[in-house]
Predict the structure.
Amino acid sequence: MLEQSRIKLGSRANLHVCRTDKFKSGFLSVNLLLPTEKKTASHAALLPRVLLRGTEAHPDLAAISEVSDSLYGAKISSVRRRFGETASLGLAAQFLERGIPGQDGGEIFAGAAALLAEVLLRPRTENGGFFDAYVKSESKNQLDAVRAEINNKTGYALRAAIRKMCEGEPFGENTLGDEEILAAITPCGLLDFHAALLSRAPIEIFYIGAQEAQTVAELVSRELSALLRGGAASPLPETVFRQPETVRRFTEKMDVTQGKLTLGWRFGQSTVKNEDAAAFAVFNAVFGGSLTSKLFVNVRERLSLCYYAQSIADSKKGILCAASGVEFAKLREAEDEILRQLEAIKDGDVTEEELSAAIRSEKTDFLTGLDSAQGLEDTLYSLYMNGYSGTAPEYAERFSRVTRQRVTEIARDTILDTVFTLEG
Amino acid sequence: MEKIYYSEIGESIYFGRLKNGLPVFVYPKPGFLKAYACFATKYGGADRRFSVGGALTDTPEGVAHFLEHKMFDTEDGHALEELSASGASPNAFTSSDMTAYHFECAENFIENLERLLSFVSVPYFTPESVEKEKGIIGQEIAMTQDEPEYAVYYSFMKLLYRTHPARESVVGTEESIAQITPETLYACHGIFYTPANMALVCAGACDPEAVFAAAERLLGALPAGESPVRDYGDTEPLAPERLETRIKMAVSEPMYVFGCALPMGTDCGARPEFTPAGSAYLKYRTAAQMALSYLAGSSSPLFHRLYAEGKIKMNFTAEFEAVTTCRYAAFSGTSGDAAEVMAAVREETARVLREGIDAELFSRIKKKTLGAAVRAFDSPENTAVEYCSALFKGYDLFTAAEVQSSVCAGDITAFLEELSRGKWVVSVVEGG
């Protein structure tokens, strides 16, 4: 059973309820949408850390722990997502709704929702700002997180490549924040950011679990009444498109044993606006996003050029990246081969088997993602932000309708923008 | 198949055994779209010396992992691609004590299951493909050398243990994998990939009888085999020669693991089945996990104090680990002064032992632990893998919640006393 509904709560909030009894856990998230901007990215990165430190009623971690432990380990955490140039900043509660004999799931849900609302709306403050010690220590932690990005070379190489490629566009901002701005954030400045966000941001609330939609709506409206009161929502930014003129090459030196090669392409604006996300997903699965993809089968397995070679396509922003781990001596050869694989798709060299395997792979990933409360929420949120209004299981059929021609057309509409390498 | 109902958690699992002894477990999840299968052998990176029928075999580091990579080759092609083309997301992993092949899919489950059972049970290696794989795994070894988590963990293990093979990397080294031949792989497959040493666990949208029938069709004719006797070397003295290692790597902040070895277990060569020793181990493990959670987990006063003082981050963890016969407590985190945090944990251990267990905190830890155990059932894939791993250690995962509720304050102090007697070591990776 999976009953989806959407309820308007005031002028700028939607409550999306997906009622199901297949999980023991429930999931509730409250997400605020804002433009990605250099001046606020660091505030957005820091805010959830400070919120999670303490509230008016539960001023420190020990006090918050007492509440969450007594709710069988209900967990409040921050969830940050991006949809093109729009950032989503949220808090999520994961809690047990079923499976403990003699325990009422509704009570645990109510307790978890109240705790989430408290953390989001009634933080610990002093002198017109957030509690000073929390801002200081969390700024340091966030600064460490910015610097810690290099510890995972694979992830770092991909994100650094995207930042280079989209430099000057909001999408190219480091969502972890900027060292200088982070260091300069004050408790009052952060509280102002918090207040502005709460009063103007569009709000998307998701609930996945066993409660009735009406029960959820009543409870959420009550707990979040201070948030839902505000006026009109701030507008969200349009996606920025750029037409690359020449291929830009960047090389970064680091103490690594294995080289990292990342290629970045842009899709044409009209394709991005007219194609369905499912078509991009299938194209990506043919190119490098699956175990039957051209990059996996040819570049990794057949030619052994890379330890890993995979692609990701962001249909909202309209970019495609191929990321790989390569011996230093083979960087050029790997690049040529990756480009050759994309050319093959442009030439229509996509077999029936490759296409149907890609479709199956995307469909499987999509459907299996619906089997966890968190995965279901994330999928519903993405679909909603992509303008889809049907149910999630119905959406799975869209992958099956993608043709070879559409895959070829999407490939033909790519323009190479950036080649980024990480070398020793 | 036999249905086993666990009233404590309200869950059921189906169990059957093929005539050759292979255990098959199915955990159906109503309402789920995906089905998940895990076919595993109790054979990991630490199982390097073993004997069957008295004949001792000694293998280089990295064979179990190399074999895992090569099993996907079939006479007609590549199982990973075939499974993927048929709508499954297949993968495999090798740890120090097991190798598991698994996939999930939303359609054609039985057909995909047959593929899985077939490629894992039928080896096909050629000298050319084995040579080629050395290049691929060589790249994987290079990649792990760039991962600080990897370096900090293995240098911790090397401090704890002098000779036990769990101290060596599962992937091996370039030199060790150079010695691997198709014959090595065929021999190890023959010894470890037998019904006596394997298990099949499925979960999610699948029918128990259909799974059992598929297992019988594909594996019913296999000879039973015998579970090999593992040799993990000399008895470990648990007296570290060195107490600290520091490694320089490109990291932004120090990363550390500290802790101590606990008395060795006796998990040698047992078949995959539930045993009294396994139940005793589950009790010990549960008490250990709860004691560490009480002592230094995210609900503990120590965690809150160290966090407020900026000495640890949210990523600080206190875990009980068991790899073959090795059992140890590992505390890991980043930044800060590892030695100072270690001293604080040891002082806190002494304080708790001196002042006794706080009943209110203990009851919260119990609730939190129970909640986590029940929530874990929401993930068919984790449940299946954990079930398998538990079976290889001789205990029944579905009894864990019941065991949790039986843990008392005395069990916590008994474990903390063991900790306080341990020889503590610290491994750090730092920039520079």
Notes: The longest helix of chain B spans residues 276-296. Residues 2-230 of chain B form a domain with the Cytochrome Bc1 Complex; Chain A, domain 1 fold (CATH 3.30.830.10). Residues 281 and 395 of chain B are 8 Å apart (CA to CA). The mean pLDDT of chain B is 94.
